[in-house]
Amino acid sequence: MLITFEGIDGAGKSTQVTRLKRRLQESGREVLTLREPGGTEVCENIRELLLQSKHDITPVAELLLFAASRAELVEKVVRPALDKGAVVILDRFSDSTTAYQGYGRGLSLEMLEEVNRIATFGLQPDITFYLDLSPEDAMIRKFSEKSLPLAFDSGELDRMESSGLEFYRRVREGYLRLQEAHPDRILLLDARLPPSTLQETISAHVAHREASPARIP
Ligand SMILES: Nc1ncnc2c1ncn2[C@@H]1O[C@H](COP(=O)(O)OP(=O)(O)OP(=O)(O)O)[C@@H](O)[C@H]1O
Ligand SMILES: [Mg+2]
């Protein structure tokens, strides 16, 4: 089973990935968690390149770097793990491309669909948890995490994070439209709820899906 977590930076994805992994392992499942971009040596290098503030990357180059990282990860790690029967949990996947590069940066959605298809070899998540949070709330979380005063130009944020509130508003809008378009796959969660409440909802949903798989492998 492939489970993905989506949401803007600071929405609480990593927090829930960790909790779900622990819960599934406790019930005896083999679980692999990976973050995008990352997961292999090549992917980690691409991640560095993408997140470093000093690089000025064009939108299409950014898209293709994310896609390159994903293709590598799917073929080398995700597919083999799924074939062995493991649960794979991804911290970001194709929906991030649509939300960030499509709605955020304004690239053509048709082009993104094609690039996503190539990069994933057609692999689709069984379940996607979308943690919905306003960019303002997300920024407050990020700044308190780094013990910084709330200022959006402090130079302490990475390249993606410093793209500004307007950008994140568009990204959120993109996620909401994706959820509307794929209501069976994407579960919308209010990311302001306490982590333990979100964890219960997520675990229950996964258990339900495991009991009645929607997809024939
Ligand atoms: N449900 C929640 N309510 C309040 N705070 C939360 C919640 N979930 C996570 N946090 C806090 O918000 C911050 C961001 O959480 P987390 O790192 O899990 O988000 P993320 O979506 O993985 O962010 P990024 O995209 O930057 O990796 C952390 O300080 C975390 O402790
Ligand atoms: Mg994270």
What does this structure look like?
By secondary structure, the protein is α/β, with parallel strands linked by helices. It has one domain (2-211): 3-Layer(aba) Sandwich (Rossmann fold), CATH 3.40.50.300. Helix content is 54%, strand content 12%. It has helices at 13-26, 41-51, 59-83, 94-104, 109-120, 135-145, 165-181, 195-211, and strands at 2-6, 31-35, 87-91, 127-132, 186-190. A 5-stranded parallel sheet has the order 2-3-1-4-5, sandwiched between helices. The longest helix has 25 residues, at 59-83. It is globular and about 45 Å long. The protein binds adenosine-5'-triphosphate (ATP) and magnesium ion. The site of magnesium ion has 3 residues, from α1.
Number of strands: 5
Spatial order of the strands in the main sheet?
2-3-1-4-5
Strand content: 5-15%
Overall geometry comes to globular
Which architecture would the CATH scheme give at its second level?
Answer: 3-Layer(aba) Sandwich
Low-confidence parts: none
Number of discrete domains: 1
CATH class: Alpha Beta
Query: How many DSSP helices?
Result: 8
Mean residue pLDDT:
90
The third-level CATH topology is Rossmann fold
- Based on CA atoms alone, the radius of gyration comes out at 17 Å
The succession of helices and strands, N to C, reads EHEHHEHHEHHEH
Sheet with the most strands, sense and barrel status: 5 strands, parallel
User: Based on helices, strands and strand pairing, what is the structural class?
Assistant: alpha/beta
